[in-house]
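User: Design a sequence. Structure:
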């Protein structure tokens, strides 16, 4: 029988000791030619060329069906950037001939989330809870069926039409072809093939799917965002910046001393919006080059509830695409011992666990509907239930889950008042 070892991650609500502080450089290449997927825990970076993928499929959760378009472009001096363009068509069936003059609109991601803010999701009818943008949810069989047909102009200026025919059995079923219907192909993108990665990246050119290696927290890249052109017009403009990964929360702090600021004041201000760091931590001056504010810092909370402080100190622009920042590891954020928390203490026993284990925690007062959940390190839900807690000591026996070997996160609580425990399956 597999053995589970569960240990408490942290019991302090404020950081007293700085665990680690260092300088990190992340590069996206000359001309911003690559995307860099960065992990805070060990500074691991995976670089992927901008042209290597076209659509990103969310692989987290059971009904998370976010699909984003690749907005990254490589800067080319004296020539238009080779970009990918996504359009919603007016076609009602896949066999219909596509006329580029009848495109409904060009689609962009809105950088709100990987699961709901993708370009194929934001066209959903806000009045219809079963509309996910590219398809409709079927209550009878719990699958999604594609109801919109899209067109994509590839970087070589050729076109493809495509439809996500369905999402069923944990797989996206994608069909695509040339505008005249030739070279029609279908591919199944299975979430289970990308365990540990929050997104699967698909290329129309190769017909293949890839993923960044392992879990990651921040994506350094070029992306498109609406900007004022100075004349009152809003333009979709390519910028170079930083987007947050799935289940990563961030807060921006301005007008402070980055060396003295602590996250305690901002603990309720963390957001999952992808572009909190974004592009505007730097500005360009024709006399000074790239300028970094000296009164700006970011706090980043990862999926495992670990807090980091980031202070950007340099940006080398399109010559190298290198961003330099100071990273401070502030440790685990926990509700235990927080005077505003309902929790007083928590533990798991026996530890290590051989067969069964019990979660024990003490509450200051009764509290119902506490979520008890197990997630992997990307934040993907493995198991969850609701429990009621009584004032004083509570003991809950955990079920056998037969998890693969590796590290997981066990949490109990409601909203921001929760405890996170480390779970290692051997």
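Assistant: Done.
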């Amino acid at each position: 029988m597999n053995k589970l070892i569960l240990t408490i991650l942290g019991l302090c609500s404020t950081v007293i000791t700085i665990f680690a502080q260092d300088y990190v450089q992340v590069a996206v290449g000359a001309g911003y030619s690559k995307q860099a997927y960065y992990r805070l825990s060990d500074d691991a970076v995976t670089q992927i060329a901008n042209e290597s993928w076209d659509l990103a499929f969310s692989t987290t959760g059971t009904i998370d069906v976010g699909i984003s378009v690749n907005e990254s472009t490589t800067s080319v001096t004296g020539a238009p950037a080779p970009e990918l363009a996504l359009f919603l068509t007016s076609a009602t069936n896949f066999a219909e001939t596509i006329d580029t003059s009848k495109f409904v609109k060009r689609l962009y991601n809105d950088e709100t989330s990987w699961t709901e803010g993708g370009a194929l999701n934001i066209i959903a009818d806000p009045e219809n809870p079963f509309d996910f943008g590219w398809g409709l949810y079927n209550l009878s069989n719990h699958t999604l069926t594609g109801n919109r047909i899209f067109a994509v102009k590839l970087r070589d200026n050729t076109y493809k039409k495509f439809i996500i025919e369905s999402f069923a059995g944990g797989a996206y079923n994608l069909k695509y072809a040339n505008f005249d219907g030739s070279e029609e192909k279908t591919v199944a993108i299975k979430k289970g093939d990308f365990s540990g990665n929050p997104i699967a990246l698909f290329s129309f050119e190769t017909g293949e799917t890839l993923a960044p290696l392992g879990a990651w927290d921040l994506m350094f890249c070029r992306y498109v965002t609406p900007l004022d052109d100075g004349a009152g017009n809003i333009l979709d403009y390519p910028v170079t910046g930083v987007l947050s990964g799935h289940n990563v929360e961030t807060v921006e702090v301005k007008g402070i001393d980055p060396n003295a600021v602590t996250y305690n004041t901002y603990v309720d201000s963390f957001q999952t919006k992808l572009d909190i760091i974004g592009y505007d931590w730097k500005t360009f001056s024709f006399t000074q080059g790239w300028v970094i504010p000296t009164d700006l810092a970011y706090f980043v909370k990862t999926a495992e509830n670990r807090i980091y402080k980031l202070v950007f100190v340099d940006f080398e622009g399109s010559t190298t695409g290198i961003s330099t920042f100071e990273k401070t590891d502030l440790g685990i954020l926990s509700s235990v011992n927080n005077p505003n928390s309902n929790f007083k203490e928590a533990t798991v026993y026996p530890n290590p666990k051989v067969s069964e284990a019990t979660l024990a925690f003490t509450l200051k007062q009764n509290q119902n509907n506490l979520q008890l959940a197990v997630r992997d390190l990307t934040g993907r839900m493995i198991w969850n239930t609701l429990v009621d807690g009584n004032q004083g000591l509570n003991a809950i026996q955990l079920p056998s889950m037969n998890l693969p070997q590796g590290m997981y996160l066990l949490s109990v609580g409601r909203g921001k008042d929760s405890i996170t425990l480390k779970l290692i399956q051997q």
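The CA atoms of residues 53 and 185 lie 17 Å apart. Confidence is low (pLDDT under 50) at residues 1-19.
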